[in-house]
Amino acid sequence: MSETQYSRFFAKALSDGHVKITGEGKTQRIVYIAVNHNERFSDPEEKVRAEFWAELIYRYNYEPTRIGIEITIPDRTPKDAADLVVFCDDDRTRPYAVIECKRDGITDAEFNQAVEQVCGNGTWAKLRASYVGVVAGATRRFLDFSDKYGAMEREKNIVADLPVQYGAPEEFKYHKGGSLDIEPVKREELIGAIKKCHQTLWGGGKLSPPTAFGELCKIIFVKISDENAKRKKGEPYEFQIKTREPNRKLAERIKALYEKEKVKDPDVFTETIKIDDATLRTIVSHLESISLSKTDLDTKGLAFEQFMDGFFKGDFGQYFTPRPIIDFAVQLLKPTNDDLVLDPACGSGGFLLHALDAVRQEASEYHKPDTKEHFQHWHDFAKTHLFGIEINEEIARVAKMNMILHDDGHSNVIGTDALDRMQRINEINRGFGKNKFDLILTNPPFGAQVKATERHYLGDYDLGKQADSKGEKKTRNNQKTEILFLERIWQFLKPGTGRAAVVLPDGILTNSSLQYVRDFILERFQLLAVVSLPQTAFAHYGAGVKASIVFLRKRKEDEKPDDNEAIFMAAPELIGYDATGRQCENQLDEVLEQYRAFESNPEPFFV
Description:
This protein is α/β, with parallel strands linked by helices. The chain folds into three domains: 3-159, tt1808, chain A, CATH 3.90.1570; 187-287; 312-606, Rossmann fold.
């Protein structure tokens, strides 16, 4: 770890000579000068201890000589030691605070076990300290064990923070513009915090993935609202741990904030926060130090995608399209702020969010960041040009909340069947209609059957009919959803200019029994490109169907297919991740470059 990667407190401790680092790699050691103690610095827990030790000096104002390291616990068999002990005296005989340090990202069970360990070591029969605490990265808990609290208390004695220089604990830790304010974080830190939230919410499997994500979104909605609330310099934030506030009271306070804010968006936030009080406190402890509103959009985007990647697997894999595939499709079609963009099977909202991100980047080409013009360029697009449909109401709500977390664009996301009669969809939202959209980016559901006995609209589709022995068109008994989506996409697109990127199972492109579908595609669309994805493309998300991304342009009403139309074709073997979800080489970037060359010289092309 380079010196620039240390916290500002630890970097200052190095600069001031309170500590030094020797050796490299696995042999690297840290020497705490004031107490003449050294440890192996490659240990993740040692790094956490070193960082907090420096905080004790520079933020809490404790003398280095009064901070003991690896202090032996009396009467412990086998021998045990406290990670950090702050003493009241120079001779280090009267413990004031006992701290247990753990690596960042430990499970809730491990954290609670550490709380019990430090309470056992720090109270009555052992070190008899006034305060104890557990530090696991940004997730922390401090408890007051002065005379008024018994050794078994674990809630009423929680304090917002360790006292500064033997003083009284503050009611709140973080204050706007104060000496300790919430701060934006780097990508790795936010990903770490979100992973901890993931583990807290879903570690025991109590909630379904979309429900768990929905609960986190509610909490983050409250957090962002609280960050942006009107408050004077020095006033505390509400979204944080309060000194001596039991779980029930904290939950009441956070839920009251949520109920106040949710009236602003009743279509999205329709229910109360459902998680239990203790879980809510843990989530608050993971997030209280972070400023989400000040953290840049790219950081938030990647962090939340990784979080959703963890949730949307197996039964819910259909609702999450991997980032490299989305990114490639969006870059190839190049949405602008003038385009009306639709995903008729939007799932958790990935294609819509990446289209919005592309327009944000476009805004920077025309306007200076942080200007009114820059904001309007992409925000007007988000409000009036982004549309989504999702048949699963719970997932539709997830998509809306996901977009709110990324600074909006949820207004025209609706929960309904995208294959239903157009009039019904239009009644829900007047923005939807035939021949309207410039771009469609979508990964429609594969394999499900639309049955004529269950869906009245099947006979409305040309692809929902077939000719009998007399040549008369009659409604099929059933049809695959992805085939009907092709016709619905054609209906939605503008004639002549409307373009689409559609993920389709390869059976549509190869099965002899589906020739009529391919005829439909070639008659009504110009086939721009076919990018065949490897078998493992969706394996990480519980699906093993071989698929391709098909790029199409809707023909004009009187436009006939041209036998000389060139088609770009590619079959990358590596797309940025393998079947387990681990990162690997991404050849889609190379394919994109080759497609740009093809655009300027449209000859038949295969990679």
